[in-house]
Specification:
It is a single chain. This protein has a two-stranded antiparallel sheet with strand order 1-2. It has a two-stranded parallel sheet with strand order 3-4. The protein is built from seven helices and four strands; from the N terminus they run E-E-H-E-H-H-E-H-H-H-H. A hairpin with a 2-residue loop joins strand 1 and strand 2. The protein is mainly alpha-helical. Helix 4 packs across helix 5 and helix 4 crosses helix 6. The relative contact order is 0.15. It has one domain: Ribonuclease H-like superfamily/Ribonuclease H (Nucleotidyltransferase, domain 5, 2-Layer Sandwich), CATH 3.30.420.10. The longest helix has 18 residues.
Length: 151
């Protein structure tokens, strides 16, 4: 799946049907799901700072060109830095929620039903807490000199 989060709550999520997402797929998702999220929360794109990691589809020439044309500010991102990314913690939160179901999903479709249901239950407070911990996570990485942290 692809999903995003804002300080105001989770954004639109979409199911990835093919096993490997390519740059073109990512751009289409940004053009629809990210834009829809920004519009849903009535945010001005000029006030948005978008964060994604250094995955090749995120750093491709096509993706960079798309984002530049959208005039979307991108947060510079150091390589190999999952401790700093709040959505990584949101994925963990989602996995724990799905893992607590008594009946395990038996197909990709039933898994998506669980994911979609739990994603839409994630509270604004969960998103805000994860975003508000960014300074602490940054400080922990600095203190660990780029090494592993408790986050």
């Amino acid at each position: 799946m692809w999903g995003c989060m804002t300080y105001y709550g989770v954004g639109y999520a979409c199911q990835i049907y093919e096993g490997t997402m390519k740059s073109e797929d990512y751009i289409n998702i940004l053009d629809e799901s990210l834009k829809d999220t920004i519009n849903y929360y009535d945010m001005d794109i000029s006030d948005v700072v978008f964060q994604h990691d250094n995955d090749p589809k995120h750093t491709s020439k096509a993706t960079k060109k798309y984002l530049m044309n959208q005039e979307l500010e991108i947060l510079p991102w150091p390589a190999q830095s999952p401790d700093l990314n709040p959505i990584k913690h949101l994925w963990h939160y989602l996995k724990v929620k799905i893992g607590s179901y008594e009946n395990r999903p038996t197909s990709i479709h039933s898994l998506w039903q669980y994911v979609d249901e739990e994603w839409n239950k994630i509270s604004v407070e969960v998103c805000q807490k994860l975003i508000e911990t960014m300074p602490k996570r940054i400080q922990a990485v600095i203190e660990a000199k780029g090494g592993h942290t408790k986050y």
